[in-house]
Amino acid sequence: MRLTPSSALTALACVAATAGLAACGSNNDKSSGTTASTAAAASGSGGKGGSIALLLPETKTTRYELHDRPSFIAKVQALCPDCTIDYANANQDPVRQQQQAEAAITKGAKVLVLDAVDAKAAVATVNRAKQANIPVIAYDRLITGAPISYYVSFDNVKVGKLQAQTLIDKIGAAGKGKSVVMLNGSPTDPSAGDYKKGAHSVLDTADVKIGKEYDTPDWSPDKAQREMEQAITALGKSQIVGVYSANDGMASGAIAAMKGNGVNPKTIPTTGQDSEVAAIQRILTGDQFMTIYLAIKKQAEASAQIAVALAQGKPVPAGLVNAKTDNQTGQVPSVLLAPTAVTKDNIKDTIIADGFLTKAEICTAKYASACTAAGIQ
Fold it and tell me: Domain spans of the chain?
């Protein structure tokens, strides 16, 4: 059963506060302190504990509250009943995230797990943690020019390549001489730069043209919709044969722009990423062509394993680290996971088979017939 982030974590935080172990956090910052077992913490059982800060960047992308947060917390609680989790979400505000990190450091966090809103701004946070001898795990987004201890993410350049190649394969010969619109994501997110790099390595050698390209602030679906409207006006409806969108939220904006301008999105394949429920439903109806499935549970659990080991002063589990990443200060021990392209043909065998989403979540009454047609029964 998937945790319900707002209710389950708030309840746990308040239980912990009652025991004098952690305080209920601000609802505005979505912060909380949690323990796996108040009784275990009170008795001192379960091994050496400590406070682990989990700092996530935003809520517009549904994955963070629905998947990253509960998966990380569940794994920490399973590994370390005495550990507390100081959670906060910055809601796309780098200044707020710096304040949240400073608060966690002041409260005695032993580890920071940081998914940076703005990677450049996060350098100061990492340096501050370093001064306090607190290791930082860069989660999902690499922080360059700062002494991070570990990096846990996906092969982001491969994500962009996979998105672009799947799009080009779908367009085929019909794209010769015509245009693809690129929606690359937030310029403050280094992962967006990696997706963009990977996508260009494919699109720049294909027969299509890149008619319009945008770096969309905040990964905003609304801003992506306006950009797509501008592209349709500039290029003409008949000249666009595909949309490279780096994530599902922006894809929703692009599709809304098409519908609002008399363009049938079923005729313009659009990419995405994150396998959001709404995106899978759009794929089933044909409005969106594909998304990228990231094994977020594995990412969150790997980060939890590293965080617990660091908090307890133990070695990181053998075999977990599988790469090193150059972040301009050194070769950072890394866990890099592989992405998977998802189209209508393999929804059942990927996200449903892994338990990332359930049939019930996807196949609501509105989408029941589309699910049946796709073999999801």
Answer: 5-154+295-337, 156-294+340-373
CB 192 within 8 Å of CB 244: no
Distance CA 243, CA 269 (A): 6
Residue whose token pair is 């043909």:
345
CA distance 192 to 183: 10
SS (H, E, C) 335-373: EEECCEEECHHHCHHHHHCCCCCCHHHHCCHHHHHHHHH
Domain 156-294+340-373 is of which CATH architecture? 3-Layer(aba) Sandwich (3.40)
Q: Token pair for residue 229?
A: 């409207």
- For residue 60, what is the DSSP state? S
Stated pTM of the model: 0.79
226: tokens are 């306006």
Enclosing H/E stretch for 278: helix 277-285
Which CATH number describes the domain made up of 5-154+295-337? 3.40.50.2300
Note the pLDDT tens digit of each residue in 179-230: 999 999 999 999 999 999 999 999 999 999 999 999 999 999 999 999 999 9
Q: What are phi and psi of 333, to 5 degrees?
A: -55, 130
Q: Which residue has the higher pLDDT, 375 or 22?
A: 375
Cα gap 291→283, rounded to integer Å: 8
Q: DSSP labels for 302-328? A: HHHHHHHHHHHT-PPPTT---EEEE-S
Write out pLDDT tens, residues 67-89: 999 999 999 999 999 999 999 99
- Residue 219 token pair: 């990964």
